[in-house]
Design brief:
mainly beta, four-stranded antiparallel sheet, three-stranded antiparallel sheet, 9 strands
Amino acid sequence: MSKSNTTENDFVKMVFLGDDPAWRAAGATLYLSLHTADPGEGGTQTSSECTYTPYARVGVSKDASGWTVSGAQAVNTADVIWPECTSGAETITHVGIGTAPSGAGQLLYSGALTGSRAVSAGIQPRIAATILQITED
């Protein structure tokens, strides 16, 4: 059984634009995380999450300043920029979208980057606008 197209479209609008008041009660921001391996469908935001210093999740507003929604697809409106690495070294392979600024928040979506990215001192991870594409099938 799959969702109807209307339900898929409504779900994307609920998650990325906050159209559903019940979803808004959970907050007006989604938190993007970087991962060194696939966090998996059963994972949380902390599964394989980066630990370089001073890594932190990046908040993106659940509105048109953060996301553009067309049909059943949402894309990031602006660049997403994480803190510059000052110590540690990791290879980033996945990005996640979740509900919490820290801790084991609910991971809503995750996916592999088009290529892994090595992070070490002086490197600031960034995902350019429109690169994150989340589609409900």
